[in-house]
Amino acid sequence: MSITLDDLRLIQEVATHGSFSKAAASLRCSQPQVSMRVAQLEATVGAILFERHRRGVRSTAACEVLLPYLQRAQAQVEEGLLAVKGVSAIPKITIGSLPSLAHTIFASLLGKLASAPMEITCTTGHSNEVIRGILEDTIQVGFILDAPAMAGIQMELLWNSPIICVAAASHPLAGRKSLALAEIATYRVAPQNWGDDECTTLLSTLRSLRSEPMPLHRVAPANAARALVLEQGFISFMPEMTVVRELRLGSMVRLPVQDLPQWYWRIMMAWRAGKQISPAKQQLLETGRALARALRPLPE
User: Which of 219, 218, 228, 248 has its CA nearest to residue 104?
Assistant: First the structure.
């Protein structure tokens, strides 16, 4: 049995919806048809693609391996059909980012590339997930935390972003010229979980400085910590890069904590090495470098 373009879409729809019935509704066919066709495809490829359970289905490891190839195949077919019609295909670029960086990076990049001849898809994931996407070519450029050198991946340092203490501009401590962790410890605190060991050390220090027990909240991603600061009056400790926009707008301020250890987030731009870089990808890389220069850490 051969695999058709309709089969590629069927597998992607089932994986996206996690349900035969929802995939069937999207494809405008019946649930039994989808179930039977998936079973036939599994027999053809010689692997189980979906685990069945009461609430739907879940992609297996074999399916996760197959999906990037299906997506590329479908995209190439679509480009080929456009070429036959004499229509120049617009280059498609996918960029990946840590969830905590997406707020800062995606809007800035897409704003600068709004008129560029390319279609951009944004996705988020942990650094290892973004790297895997780059290796599989489902992600062309990624923004990740510093990682060991890896075969097939080119990495470039964009920001060495300090971990800073922040509060809303209306917070009682916002006007202070100098502060100590002991003073911060008396307020409601919710650090972004920027790094397990360092964040744990900070929380332990703050607990030791409190004269009475109070809850300390460790939150992720950066959006959650940002909302607690701006909407609930919390103090947070975060990589400066994740709140640089709020600091420049003045809705958030950096608290000058003198005894805060010097911790950093090293943010890298990563892409697949050993492959000719397309003009669209080269433009994206240059825009990422320009963005890094524009968003340098603010003077204290």
Answer: 248
